[in-house]
Amino acid sequence: MRRLPPLGSLRAFEAAARLQSFKRAAAELGVTPTAVSHQIRRLEAELGVALFVRQTRKVALTTQGRALLPPLRGAFDDMAEAIDALRPRTGRQVATLSATTALSARLLVPRIAGFRARYPGWDLRLHASDELVDLAAGEADAAIRYGRGPYPGLTALPLLTEGFAPVCSAHLAVRRPEDLAGATLIHLRGMPPALEAILPSWAAWARKAGLKTLDTDAGLSFSDETSAIQAVIAGHGVALLGLPLVAAELASGALVQPFGPRIEGLAYHLVYPANAAERPAVAVLRSWVMDELSAIRTPTPASTPGNG
Question: Which residue intervals define the domain HTH lysR-type in the entry (predicted)?
Answer without folding.
Answer: 5-62
